[in-house]
Amino acid sequence: MLKQNQLFLYEEIMLLALKDEEGTIASGTNYQYALAGGILAELLLGEKITAEERKKKKYAVLKDSTPLGDSVMDECLKKIIQSKKNQQLQTWVSRFSGLKNLKHRTALKLVERGILRADEDKVLLLFTRKIYPEVDPEPERRMIERMRTAIFTDSGDIDPRTVVLISLADSTGLLKVVFDKKELKPQKKRIEQIVNGELTGKATKEAIQAMQAAVFVACIMPAVIASTTAGH
Questions:
Q1: Is the pTM for the entire model greater than 0.85?
Q2: Interhelix angle 9-17/138-152, nearest 10 degrees
Q3: Residue of 150, 204, 215 whose CA lies nearest to 178
Q4: Do 214 and 88 meet the contact criterion of CB atoms below 8 Å apart?
Q5: Burial track 168-187 (b if 16+ CB lie within 10 A, e otherwise)
Q6: 180-214 pLDDT, tens per residue?
Q7: How far apart are CA 90 and CA 149, in angstroms?
Q8: Please, which residues have CB within 8 angstroms of residue 169's CB and are 6 or more apart in sequence?
Q9: CA–CA separation, 181 vs 187, rounded Å?
Q10: Count of other CB atoms within 10 angstroms of residue 144
Q11: In whole angstroms, what is the distance from residue 232 CA to residue 226 CA?
Q12: 112: Cβ–Cβ under 8 A, 6 or more apart, which residues?
């Protein structure tokens, strides 16, 4: 169960992906897969599903069908419940990333929480787009401070949600949006330790590794398919 006012992992990812003042997505990121990975990780950590290995492939197996009371999370859980057979974790990452209006639905949830503001601006004076500037920086500030403490200190006690957040941010290009590349370079080994689950419990480590593999495959598959198609 989340603590009162605690954000879901996919909501935290959205805060990292959005530029604070402009309210637009930072370029060069696979943020949609990070959102989907956050949803999957939330289901794994909350023991709604377990990752079951079959022939070296990880499948999502339903463990608890009780709704979480969050429209996005419950829609994704419902998809797993209604699936006629168990699907691989990366299949769910791909499907969750393609959820209709996922970006806007997530941003609007943060608007409801008073963290973002829903607005519009014009692109090239022609097209109107929805933007979500930050109005309450405190939740993101606290989140980045958690990440900073984990990455830039020798703290050996990192909570599972922070480990997942850093792992997702690292694998989808968001970590370089949050922190300066030069700042991150000396911490490469430390980040690897965090991402590999060396600083967390066995159950969390397994959940994180399963989620990471699923996000990695989901990220590269569209590129592989595109290059294969282009070659014909």
A1: yes
A2: 90
A3: 150
A4: yes
A5: bbbbbbbbebbbeeeebeeb
A6: 999 999 999 999 988 887 766 666 677 777 777 77
A7: 30
A8: 13, 16, 34, 147, 175, 178
A9: 10
A10: 17
A11: 10
A12: none
- Find, among 169, 198, 196, 199, the residue nearest to 184 by Cα: 169
SS (H, E, C) the chain: CCCCCCCCHHHHHHHHHECCCCCCECCCCCHHHHHHHHHHHHHHHCCCEEEEEECCEEEEEECCCCCCCCHHHHHHHHHHHHCCCCCEHHHHHHHHHCCCCHHHHHHHHHHHCCCECCEEEEECCCEEEEECCECCCHHHHHHHHHHHHHHHCCCCCCCHHHHHHHHHHHHCCCHHHHCCHHHHHHHHHHHHHHHCCCCCCHHHHHHHHHHHHHHHHHHHHHHHHHHHHHCC
Q: Show contacts of 64-71: CB within 8 Å, 24+ apart.
A: 70/8, 70/109, 71/105, 71/109
Q: Which residues of 111-138 are buried (b: 16+ CB within 10 A; e: fewer)?
A: beeebbeeeeeeeeeeeeeebbbbeeee
Residues making up the chain, counted from first to last: 232
Distances (CA, A) of 154 to 150, 182, 199: 7, 19, 10
The encoded tokens of residue 148 equal 């900073």
Cα distances (Å, whole numbers) of residue 49 to 99, 125, 225: 19, 47, 29
99-148 pLDDT, tens digit each = 999 999 999 999 999 999 999 988 777 788 899 999 999 999 999 999 99
